[in-house]
Write a structure and sequence with these properties.
By secondary structure, the protein is an alpha+beta fold. The chain is 32% helix and 27% strand. Strands 16-17-26-25-22-23 form a six-stranded antiparallel sheet, covered by helices on one side. Strands 2-1-5-4-3 form a five-stranded antiparallel sheet. A hairpin with a 5-residue loop joins β6 and β7. α8 runs antiparallel to α13 and α19 packs antiparallel against α20.
């Protein structure tokens, strides 16, 4: 073999970089070689020919090496190797370099056909090792069924790939194949844009997530992670792109499951409404977990009660559907009962608390009734997963997720996830159920403690409306009241208790009862509030230490007299009323509020205003006027404007009240709202009469005569005898025990009211006189003759009154 032949062999072994060596030579010299070294030996190991790359490797020239044994270049040749008769085929040696250093080399010896010569190829061991490891790495990557390696040329045609049937679309990928031959056109175009950018810029792409569909199955998407690198030749010119496609479906599924669990934790349980919570749970599952989802609950759960021990088809009603309006069978509607299902092993598993998965065929076989299948099974559904909603030892209902079309079937991991979601969802629904039960109990107590919604008295027509707090907030004890008082007067009350729940309702009930009792004593508004404040102080002292801060209230108390057409009012930290006059103008009444009822020791102030007949006085609590976007003053102005626009003589007060509450209160108020509307009336002047009583005992007979003339004028002859006796006793007491000036007043309506007012604060007392007593029988006689009697105090005066029913009122 001549030198030319060796050079030809050497050229064939140059693999353009795979075996090319780079770096510095020994002692920091420039690169000692560029290619694999080659030499030709005879059968005794004598060097016959020496190439330039052998010189680059060892530093020895052909003149220095030829015709000499190759063993002289080996630094650690064992003694037995000198006596070896056969050439080794391959191995590792340490070669001397002309500088005196040594080189670790890997060699391979092959006989030259037709001669006794041998061709020796050698290269630095570490470069050979790198190549072997690289080849091993490529083989390992190529053997992974979830990793596809593809080499693309500069036209992005596939040059080589490890894709096998089933790796991509079930078909082999031949050299020259384009991405558009494998992928959906849009996906292929997007992917080629990414690879072309790598080819042009040389900037690699690492772990870019893609959703692609095969050309033959465009409806089904696959998750891939792409990493791409540019290929270059020895002159760093682009020769193509290497792309690694990793199946990331498991990773994305795990990430999706974590995201779904987080979404359930964040979005389910924020509401204390059972149906809203169920709908939130269904909405979270679609489309992240299934194409359709439904939540079915026991009927008792909707009302806050505990369900029965065993649940199944026929004893549940639908609470939520997602999506709510599309894709469901026509028969399934929210709120409908679920038809009973036949006994089945999977149904029994569900009743034992297990999550079950039905294929479409299994579910149809279990139902067996074609009409029921049409009613229950969504179109194109191929699988359903059903999990019980189990919390605190109770099975509240079930949650089901359907998958339709080409979506993947359910996996065991997803069944575990469904169990976790169902557990968290059941706890949220049970919290809402328990709140519903407690809220309804508190609401029932609150409603029972409130007065009738409407009243009709000679003084005013009233209508009250109450709106409890919503969206999970507890009731807070707002109340209103309209109390009929003697002498045709009426007391109007609005109050707001501090705190919430049944404690607030109980406090409200005690305060309302106390105010009614004190109202019958006909106290002035400021004095009544002062006494109620004393009661609240006692309630605070009786409350546990941790409840001292939540016992208290604000209150507005007003008394309207239809005879004088005047209204006296006082406020304990409460909102002022709004007055709508008959001409339609509205204004906020200016009053001087005192401290809330929980703060004792400070006085209250009574404000007097005149009211025309047909005026409307509106008392409300702050839940009606306060909001996140307005303060109290803005809320009162808003209420005044709304009253001016809504209050019409031809419109019923209760209708007006409901409309105002709907328009002014928030959609889900965080506080209770109460509103009391009172349309005032007046007693005509012709139905009242008054007479000044002289300070003379003879005035008693004059009073009887005046009373007789007035009753005759009114046509009340049947009451003459009893009224004369009542007037005699009242006038006698005023002259004997009172102080002038004194006055007798008669008021005619559905009752006849006799009033005697004097300037003495002395309180009369009803007692049973002894047989020998000369007096003390007057009030006893008055109590027997009339339907009721009483005494009220004003500033430096008192009034004793008596009422008699008029059998045929005018």
């Amino acid at each position: 073999m001549d030198i030319k032949t060796v050079s030809d062999v050497h050229s064939e072994c140059d693999i353009q970089g795979t075996m090319r060596v780079s770096g510095s030579g020994p002692s920091g010299r420039p690169p000692a070689f560029e290619y694999v070294a080659a030499a030709v030996l005879d059968d005794r190991g004598t060097v016959l020919r020496w190439t330039g790359t052998a010189k680059d490797l060892t530093g020895f020239t052909a003149q220095e090496v030829c015709d000499r044994p190759i063993q002289e270049l080996v630094a650690d040749l064992p003694d037995e190797s000198h006596r070896a008769r056969e050439m080794p085929t391959s191995g590792h040696v340490r070669l001397w370099h002309r500088s005196g250093d040594t080189i670790d080399a890997t060699f391979r010896i092959s006989p030259v056909e037709g001669s006794a010569e041998f061709l020796v190829l050698a290269a630095p061991t570490h470069h050979v090792t790198d190549r072997d490891q690289g080849a091993a790495l490529l083989r390992a990557l190529s053997s992974q069924d979830r990793v596809t390696i593809a080499l693309h040329d500069t036209d992005l045609s596939t040059v080589q790939t490890n894709a096998t049937p089933g790796t991509l679309d079930g078909r082999p990928v031949d050299p020259g194949t384009r991405l558009c031959d494998v992928l959906r056109a849009e996906d292929a175009e997007n992917l080629e844009a990414v690879l072309r950018q790598v080819l042009v810029t040389g900037v690699p792409v690492i772990h870019r997530n893609l959703q692609v569909s095969w050309r033959h199955d465009p409806a089904r998407q696959h998750a891939l992670s792409l990493s791409a690198f540019r290929l270059e030749d020895s002159r760093r010119r682009p020769t193509g792109v290497a792309a690694l496609y990793i199946d990331s479906a498991d990773h994305l599924r795990a990430r999706r499951n974590l995201d779904l669990a987080r979404e359930v934790a964040e979005q389910v349980g924020g509401s204390l409404d059972v149906v809203r919570t169920a709908q939130d749970l269904a909405d979270v599952l679609v489309p992240a977990f299934g194409d359709l989802a439904a939540v079915d609950l026991a009927p008792s759960v909707f009302g806050g009660e505990e369900p029965s021990q065993q649940l199944g088809g026929g004893d549940m009603g639908n609470a939520a559907l997602a999506p709510a309006t599309t894709a469901w069978p026509a028969g399934i509607k929210r709120g409908d009962s679920i038809p009973p299902l036949p006994d089945h092993p999977l149904l029994r598993s569900f009743r034992r608390g297990e999550t079950v998965v039905f294929g479409r065929g299994d579910f149809i076989a279990m139902v067996s009734d074609p009409q029921l299948v049409e009613y229950l099974v969504p179109k194109d559904a191929h699988a359903v997963m059903v999990a019980p909603l189990h919390a605190r030892g109770l099975t509240l209902g079930a949650i089901s997720a359907w998958r339709c079309g080409r979506s993947d079937p359910f996996t065991e991991d997803e069944a575990d996830l469904m169990r976790q979601i169902a557990s968290r969802g059941a706890l949220a629904i049970d919290n809402a159920r328990r709140y519903t039960r407690e809220h309804r109990a508190a609401m029932a107590l609150q409603q029972r403690l409130l007065p009738p919604a409407t009243t009709d008295t000679p003084a005013a027509e009233t209508a009250g409306v109450y709106l409890p707090a919503g969206d999970g907030a507890e009731i807070r004890g707002d109340w209103y009241d309209a109390i009929a008082l003697p002498s045709l007067q009426v007391a109007l009350v609005a109050g707001d208790v501090i705190g919430h729940g049944t404690l607030a309702s109980a406090t409200m009930g005690r305060l309302r009862a106390a105010i009614q009792t004190l109202a019958d004593l006909e106290l002035e508004p400021d004095e009544l509030l002062a006494r109620i404040a004393d009661l609240v102080q006692r309630l605070v002292a009786e409350a546990p230490p941790d409840h001292h801060d939540v016992v208290g209230a604000t209150c507005l108390y007003a008394v309207y007299d239809p005879v004088t057409r005047r209204c006296a009012m006082a406020s304990a930290g409460h909102l002022p009323p709004v007055l709508v006059r008959p001409d339609g103008t509205a204004e906020v009444v200016g009053i001087s509020p005192g401290p809330p009822l929980a703060i004792g020791g400070l006085p209250y102030e009574t404000t007097m205003i005149d009211l025309e007949p047909g005026s409307i006085l509106a008392l409300c609590t702050n839940g009606l006027i306060e909001g996140s976007d307005r303060d109290v003053d803005q809320g009162l102005r808003r209420l005044a404007d709304a009253l001016a626009a809504s209050c019409r003589p031809d419109r019923a007060l209760d209708e007006t009240g409901r409309a105002l509450l709907a328009n002014l209160a928030d959609q889900a108020p965080r506080d209770d709202a109460a509103l009391l509307l009172a349309r005032t009336r007046a007693v005509p002047a012709k139905d009242t009469a008054q007479w000044q009583i002289p300070a003379d005992p003879a005035a008693v007979s004059e009073a009887r005569a005046w009373t007789t003339r007035q009753l005759t004028k009114w046509g009340l002859d049947d009451l003459l005898f009893t009224t004369e006796l009542i007037v005699s006793e009242l006038v006698t007491n005023a002259i004997r025990y009172g102080r002038p000036p004194a006055e007798l007043r008669l008021i005619r309506h559905d009752v006849l009211v006799c009033e005697v007012t004097d300037s003495s604060p002395t309180q009369p007392r009803l007692r049973r006189a002894a047989t020998t007593d000369e007096g003390g029988r007057g009030l006893f006689l008055i109590a027997q003759l009339g339907t009721r009697w009483g005494c009220r105090h004003g500033q430096n005066r008192k009034t004793i009154w008596s009422e008699q029913l008029i059998e045929c009122p005018r």
